[in-house]
Design goal:
Structural class of chain A: mainly beta
Oligomer: heterodimer
Number of strands of chain A: 52
Structural class of chain B: mainly alpha
Strand order of the largest sheet of chain B: 2-4
Largest sheet of chain B: 2 strands, antiparallel
Strand content of chain B: under 5%
Order of helices and strands of chain B: HEHHHEHHHHHHEHHEHEEEHHHHEHEH
Largest sheet of chain A: 22 strands, antiparallel, barrel
Strand content of chain A: over 45%
Helix content of chain A: under 10%
Shape of chain B: globular
Largest interface: A-B, 130 and 139 residues
Radius of gyration of chain A: 33 Å
Number of helices of chain A: 12
Chain lengths: ~1050, ~500
């Protein structure tokens, strides 16, 4: 303590004695390139103590002693400049863009920051400037096109939802493939949409083992480091951002037939089922034609035309030319469900820093209304970050964030759910009106108040309007249900990060980190009593969960420079505790209208709660060694424990080693002028993954909550695997980083090989094992097999054109990732997984499907190659051109049919700047791979009257001799003709314009008048278009290469302004 | 000293923040499940495992046609002639005799897993109950119930997926895998045992169950088994195997001491196991509702949607064979517009709903209701049929007994019923018509047709091709066997593609 006081006095003394001879130099630092002020430039008095930093307006002010002869200006990305002082107290400086200092770019890495040059791992970074002008609700969207080797799917368009991310392929089969999120240094398990994009300073994607190794046990799928903003030295700063936009559907709907085309198709489906019955002899064609003409309306129930019920379709199968629709304007179920949504995104932040402390405070508000009615996302975010060094040897800080989210959700989760607006509106036949009409005149039926009546398809008894058949959701009404029901999510989130850091013994630092994230989530769900699942009484469910995660860390660092050598050693201990408390209750029989709280319901139908606890503990160390800023070696080791595994298997060891060599720093390279930066690096390491669903997998468990009336009951849930433990991912990586021609061309070539061993796998059990029920096949969790992901990643960036004030910069990412399973368990060498089969020598997403072979021209049946092991009965066998086929899909041959993985994928970003204007366009692409279009399959199947049909059904087989590639419409045999098979595979290539931003920097003299130092206005668009092989198809919907009726991605057009005072 | 301070302070920080290094830090306990080894410590806990099986008979599983035993009953009846749809529906598509032939059909997987799940849970009880702490009488009751479950579940499975049992012999055709041990592990499964072997297992389990129930604690309620139910199942099995004497004897013993319900009870909705005639049924309470997956919802008395607003109908041919004084005549509405059939709002009331049912009515605010699995009436019908078949096979004296047995039942349902004057096959047919009327909707018709090797004949009544897909199905074809689920073929190499039904 004594010494501390001493130093304090000494400091004060110096300060006072210095003041006497001071003068203050002020000035503005601007860029030679565009003349804009450069904030954050460090201004140092050469040979003295004083340091200042330019503010947002580029201005600085520095007190210097009379002995100071010159000032040095340094800033990353610019050439350091030393300016001699004159008698003037004003020194305005222009800095040149730095063409040589690529290696000095600071990047966030695990437990610290480093520079691009020193880093020996594979890290890609997205800075705040890349997201500042994009209307990003879910931060994952910011990573679109960010780096090679990083794949994003489209994700759901539900406001607040975002894409899912895969880093370097698919490391696991049954365990999670999601990267680990670290927010401000602490493992983050909350929803990523809790983070306001405007608070984010940078996002780093750690791809290889070396860069992720310190997060060893959870980092097998890569790590995403999110770092929020801090106050910068210089002028205190007030920034605001306003983005105002509209939302609409990003991808068009599949093409389905209209009413005039639909009736003849249904006629065919019925007629053919009479001619080709499943069992027994068929009717003669003419008889069947007549019967179909007479009966078809009776099967479809509704006749929307102005002709008699038996005169809609002729016996020739053609639409009556005199028929016209009675209410053509009321057959569209999609439009009433859609709207032009709005999106408002407002944020304000205040930040600054002094010598000892920095602060950043922000408040933001986001309100997004989806293009589907009753879907929105509303979030209020606040964040305060303070760092301080109150004592020379002690540093501390606090980062507090809180947010309140409220979101109405369109019920678009269940692909086949009737309340899913996409499913319902896509699947209902085009002859059923939204509102009830008088059958004869087609006039709208009105209720006592003069309003239109929703046609729920079961109003025959009540109103005398036709019912709908079950294929057209009789008794249901998507519009009415969407309006009357509600599904609402609310989240209150509190996050805190704090630390204390003590410097001691000159080179040592001891730091304690504490991180807490608390998320209170509430899900309230109400189904009305009039129509749908809640009818006739109304029902509601409230689910409430509390997720609490704690991280406690102790870090000891040692940093020493000896001659040209620098050592950097870290030794640390980490505890992580994730507790999830779940409580749900449901009741039905609503008492009074307008209140969907449970207390307003009479009968309890469900009530239960549980608590899951998951913990991890780790000790880890890292040693970085740097010789002469040219050669770098780094090694790390982490020992991890996880509560997921049983005794004796909880602990796993993970490690990494890496090296880098900046070749361009060598003397022999100095003469090669066109090479500005050249670095080689390589890494090797092993990471873990314990992300298999379920806890306590080592024990055989009985599930609670199977009470038999009032008697307590339990049922077997899972088999024990006492041997289950970590999955390991070992990765080797090598890269060449370069900057050429004054860095006009820069980039990275990188190769990696990631080996997953002891793969965590839920091995499917035979159904007769008695675990699992229905489609929920029972499984046994096991560490089986091996799989690798190997890839090449190329990033190329540069200025294509740089002419005067015009610049065209292009940034290209290209990745090729191959995936291969190399070992399967002996007892189950092949495992069927939906439309895929896992086996040695194939990828994780290799389609395994019935082999569709076309259509029999004689009767239009779908032909499949025959499975020799179950050839089926002779009646199902056909011989076409000497080759035997089966028409029974049960006897079809299954075979590998291509993979869902693309040949290559990536992005290209074009940025054009002209004077104060800029245009940045991000395009994502994928080439190759197969996609199973299950939505299309649904639209081509017709096994129940009333469902909709794709326009391709018009080309179906119609009569003997037709050489069609679409099987005959046949209600009875649709299951066989349209069985899941290679027929529904399609090329997965696509090109997607993910984002485009047109910006303009307002002239300084103009904004200066209103006190602004910087202002940028822009127009931006997200998801502007997608080109794929079929209209409506979005191959980026999933990594598995299978689609569903999900909330199609949202297109957002916005206008915005970012400004600083 | 100066440096010591600087060392002590970090040390203090270290100690203060290193709170979580306790040895049991990584030991967590689930709160939504219990460990296997805790289950068979006492008979009380083992009883919970048994009640879990009872509960599994009425759970809202993943697909709508997966409401438990009630859903299976509907499948079985839908394949016969006696239920007629009001609208075309993809639900219970077995009615059209197509979907059950597809290995990837969800319903096949549901029925298959539904019963194997029961078997696996029963196996754990059978193998572990002896070691539990508790009275012998309790153990006998629990073991008897578990054995009965194992037998019953195999019995349903073999009837659905295997070929019919031929009393004439040579039942070597593939049945279903026999699961009779709790040693379930990740190893691939068992092959399909022969139909003969499956029935041998069923009978062995039933005999063991009946023996176990002697001296066992009385069952707490009718969701549990007792010796009567075990004998009742034994009678069903024997009837299916064509072992008439065993069937008659067990049916008689099963109903001994039990009574038929009153006519008033007959019209009370078939939804409460307090009904004196019920021998076995699932009790369902509101917080265990299966919502619209429910048996009652599908029979069309719980308003919500297509299948549910369209009440199921009886085949008019069968209906017309019910005498007008029979209480059962009142269970169906030939006009479809009878206002006395007080069904919920929205349920179709029109000639399109003619012959709609009100036998089964929802019992609560949701679609809850107790599902009947065995009644005394069935025991009368089994005994009458078995005795009449014995008579036809030569034991002529049995016919009188058969007539008297049927008389007791029929007289209860129709006060005007007189002892039948039919003889021989005509009397057998009378018994079978009584059986169809009495057990309508209770999950028997497909099994009855299959065991008798009889064709489906839906002609002459209110069934149409458009709604029923087919009106006739000849007896004995490959379509009488449901396809083994594809997931079983895929994950069970002991069956594999070659083990699929033709």
């Amino acid at each position: 303590m004594k010494k501390l006081l001493q130093s304090l006095f000494v400091l004060l003394f110096f300060a006072f004695s210095a003041m006497a001879q001071d003068r203050t130099i002020t000035g503005t630092v601007t860029s030679t390139e565009d003349g804009n002020p450069i904030p954050g430039v460090s201004v140092k008095a050469v040979g003295a103590q004083g340091v200042a930093v330019t503010g947002n307006d580029g201005k600085y002010s520095l007190r210097v002693t009379s002995s100071t002869k010159s000032l040095q200006f340094t800033f990353i990305g610019y050439v350091t400049k030393t300016v001699a002082l004159t008698s003037s107290n004003i020194a305005n400086v222009k800095l040149d863009g730095d063409a040589t200092n690529l290696q000095d770019v600071v990047i966030n890495v695990a437990y610290g920051t480093t520079t691009k040059g020193k880093n020996t791992g594979s890290v890609s970074t997205v800075g705040s400037e890349k997201i500042a002008e994009r209307p990003i609700t879910n931060l994952n969207s910011a990573l679109a096109g960010a780096a090679p080797g990083v794949q994003l799917n489209a994700g759901s368009g539900q406001p607040g939802s975002g894409p899912t991310i895969r880093v370097r392929g698919f490391g696991s089969i049954s365990a999670s493939n999601n990267p680990l999120y670290i927010v401000d240094g602490i493992q983050y398990s909350g929803d990523i949409s809790n983070i306001s994009a405007d608070d984010v300073e940078s996002i780093s994607v750690l791809k290889d083992a070396a860069s992720s190794a310190l997060y060893g046990s959870s980092a097998g799928n890569g790590v995403i480091l999110i770092t929020t903003k801090k106050g910068r030295k210089g002028k205190e700063q007030l920034d605001f951002r306003i983005i105002q936009g509209v939302t609409s559907r990003g991808i068009p709907e599949y093409e389905t037939v209209g009413a005039y085309e639909y009736y003849p198709l249904a006629w065919q489906a019925y007629r053919n089922s009479l001619v080709y019955p499943v069992t027994g002899a068929g009717l003669p064609l003419a008889t069947a034609n007549t019967r179909a003409t007479n009966d078809i309306k009776g099967l479809l129930f509704n006749n929307p035309f102005n002709v008699a019920d038996n005169a809609i379709v002729g016996t020739d199968g053609l639409m009556n030319p005199n028929a016209s629709l009675l209410y053509a304007d009321d057959l569209d179920w999609r439009s009433p469900l859609m709207r032009t949504g709005t999106r408002g995104d407002y944020s304000l932040s205040y930040s600054g820093a002094t010598e000892k402390s920095d602060f950043y405070a922000s408040l933001s508000y986001l309100d997004e209304k989806g293009y589907i009615i009753r879907s929105d996302f509303n979030r209020i975010n606040g964040r305060v970050t303070i760092n301080s060094r109150p004592l020379s040897w002690f540093k501390t800080g606090l980062n507090l964030t809180a947010n309140i989210t409220k979101s109405n959700q369109a019920d678009a989760d269940g692909s086949g759910s009737i309340v899913n607006p996409f499913n319902f509106s896509r699947s209902i036949g085009p002859i059923y009106p939204v509102y009830a009409h008088t059958p004869t005149t087609g006039d709208y039926l009105l209720d006592s108040k003069g309003g239109r009546v929703y046609d729920t398809g079961n109003l025959l008894t009540v109103l005398g309007v036709p019912n709908r058949p079950s294929g057209a959701y009789a008794g249901r009404h998507i519009l009415q249900e969407t309006l009357l029901n509600s599904t609402q999510i609310k989240r209150n989130v509190l996050g805190a990060r704090t630390y204390g850091e003590v410097s001691f013994l000159k080179d040592f630092k001891l730091r304690a980190n504490l991180g807490v994230d608390i998320s209170n989530y509430s899900f309230a769900d109400y189904q009305n009593k009039i129509v749908g699942d809640g009818a006739p009484n109304g029902r509601a469910r409230n689910t409430s969960t509390t997720t609490t995660t704690y991280t406690i860390e102790q870090l000891l660092t040692y940093n020493k420079k000896v001659g040209k050598s620098t050592f950097d050693v870290l030794l640390a201990h980490n505890n992580y505790d994730y507790a999830y408390k779940y409580l749900t209750g449901a009741r039905n029989t609503q008492i009074l209208d307008g209140n969907s709280e449970l207390i307003n319901f009479a009968t309890t139908t469900d009530l239960n709660s549980y608590l899951n606890d998951y913990r991890k503990e780790a000790v880890f160390t890292r040693v970085n060694y740097d010789y002469d800023s040219k050669y770098f070696i780094s090694g790390s080791f982490r020992r991890d424990g996880s509560s997921k595994w049983g005794p004796g298997l909880r602990w796993g060891n993970f490690y990494s080693g890496s090296a880098g060599w900046i070749v361009s720093e060598e003397n022999f390279m100095k003469s090669v002028n066109w090479v500005n930066y050249l670095k080689l690096r390589t890494s090797y390491g092993s990471l873990g993954n314990d992300g298999l669903t379920g806890n306590n997998l080592d024990r055989s468990l009985y599930s609670l909550d199977y009470n038999n009336a009032a008697e307590p009951g339990i049922l077997l849930q899972s088999l024990a695997n006492p041997n289950i433990t970590w999955e390991t991912q070992t990765q080797i990586d090598a890269a060449l980083e370069f900057g050429l021609f004054k860095n006009r061309l820069h980039g990275t070539f990188e190769v990696f090989s990631k080996q997953s061993s002891d793969l965590l796998f839920n091995v499917p059990l035979p159904l007769s094992s008695g675990l699992g029920i229905g489609n929920g096949t029972g499984t046994f969790p096991k560490n089986i097999g091996k799989m690798w992901n190997r890839g090449i990643e190329i990033n190329l960036g540069g200025d294509v054109i740089k002419a005067g004030s015009f610049k065209w910069a292009l940034d290209i990412n290209w990745s090729k990732v191959k995936n291969r399973i190399t070992k399967m368990p002996d007892e189950t060498p092949t495992i069927i997984d939906g439309t895929k089969q896992l086996s040695v020598g194939n990828s994780r997403y290799e389609f395994w499907l019935r082999q569709w072979a076309g259509v029999d021209p004689t009767d239009g049946a779908s032909l499949y190659l025959i499975n020799p092991l179950s050839p089926g009965v002779a009646a199902d066998t056909r011989t076409v051109n000497g080759q035997n086929y089966t028409i029974n899909s049960n006897n079809a041959l299954y075979a590998y049919s291509g993979a869902a993985l693309p040949s290559y994928f990536g992005s290209f970003t074009n940025t054009f700047t002209y004077k104060a204007f800029s245009l940045a366009v991000i395009m994502n692409y994928q080439v190759g791979g197969q996609f199973y279009d299950s939505t299309y399959q649904g639209l081509m199947s017709y096994s129940g009257y009333g469902g909709s049909l794709h326009v391709d059904a018009l080309n179906s087989w119609k009569q003997a001799g037709d050489a069609s590639s679409i099987p005959r419409m046949d209600i009875g045999r649709s299951t066989f003709n349209n069985a899941t098979s290679t027929r529904f595979l399609i090329d997965a290539s696509y090109l997607n314009m993910r984002s485009a931003v047109l910006g303009y920097n307002l002239p300084k003299d103009f904004i200066g008048k209103i006190g602004l130092s910087k202002a940028n206005v822009y127009a931006s668009g997200e998801n502007l278009f997608l080109l794929s092989k079929r209209k409506g198809l979005d191959p980026s919907e999933s990594f598995t290469g299978v689609n569903s009726n999900n909330y199609t991605p949202t297109r957002i057009f916005s206008f915005g302004i970012n400004a600083s005072f | 000293m100066k440096n010591l301070n600087k060392l002590l302070f970090p040390l203090a920080v270290l100690i203060l923040t290193t709170g979580a290094c306790k040895k049991d830090y990584l030991l967590t306990t689930p709160t939504d499940a219990v460990s296997n080894d805790a289950v068979f410590t006492t008979t009380t806990n083992a009883m919970a495992a048994l009640n879990g099986i009872h509960r599994s008979l009425y759970i809202q599983y993943s697909r709508q046609e997966e409401g438990g035993q009630g859903a299976v009953n509907l499948n079985i009846d839908y394949m016969g002639e006696d239920i007629v749809n009001t609208v075309s529906t993809t639900a219970f598509g077995v009615h059209k005799w197509v979907t059950h032939r597809s290995a990837s059909n969800g319903n096949n997987a549901f029925i298959y897993t539904f019963y194997y799940r029961i078997i696996t849970n029963a196996n754990l009880i059978i193998d572990n109950i002896d070691g539990a702490e508790g009275s012998d009488a309790d153990k006998k009751a629990i073991k008897g119930e578990a054995l009965t479950y194992r037998a019953w579940a195999h019995f349903v499975l073999v009837q659905v997926f295997g070929k019919r049992y031929d009393a004439a012999g040579n039942n070597t055709q593939a049945g279903v895998p026999i699961s009779n041990t709790s040693k379930v592990d990740e190893k691939p499964g068992k092959p399909r045992a022969s139909v003969e072997a499956v029935y041998a297992q069923i009978n062995a389990d039933l005999d063991a169950a009946i023996a176990s129930f002697a001296g066992a604690t009385d069952r707490p309620n009718k969701s549990h088994f007792n010796i009567n139910v075990a004998k009742g199942i034994k009678a069903r099995v024997a009837l299916t195997q064509g072992k008439w004497a065993i069937a008659a004897q067990n049916a008689l013993e099963a109903r001994t001491g039990l009574t038929l319900m009153t006519n008033a009870e007959y019209l009370s909705g078939f939804n409460s196991y307090t009904n004196q005639e019920w021998m076995w049924g699932s009790k369902q309470q509101e917080d265990q509702t299966t919502y619209f997956y429910s048996f009652f919802a599908y029979l069309g008395t719980f308003n919500s949607s297509a299948n549910r607003t369209n009440p199921k109908r009886i085949n008019s041919v069968l209906y017309n064979q019910i005498t007008s004084t029979d209480v059962r005549k009142g269970l169906w509405d030939p006009s479809g517009t009878n206002a006395a059939f007080s069904l919920p709002v929205g349920v179709v009331t029109s000639s399109a709903a003619s012959y709609r049912q009100r036998k089964f009515a929802v019992a609560g605010t949701t679609s809850v209701g107790d599902v009947v699995n065995m009644r005394v009436a069935e025991m009368f019908l089994i005994e009458a049929e078995a005795r009449q078949r014995l008579a036809l096979a030569g034991a002529a004296a049995e016919e009188v007994t058969a007539k008297n047995v049927l008389f007791t039942l029929a007289k209860n349902r129709d006060a005007n019923y007189v002892l039948s004057t039919n003889t021989g096959t005509a009397f057998l047919n009378e018994i079978l018509v009584q059986r169809r009327i009495e057990l309508w909707g209770e999950g028997f018709r497909f099994f009855d047709l299959k065991r008798m090797d009889a064709p489906v004949d839906r002609t002459g009544g209110n069934a149409t091709v458009a709604l029923s897909g087919v009106l006739t199905v000849p007896a004995g074809g490959a379509e009488w066997q449901w396809a083994i689920p594809q997931a079983e073929i895929d994950a069970n190499p002991a069956i594999g593609p070659a083990g699929q039904n033709p």
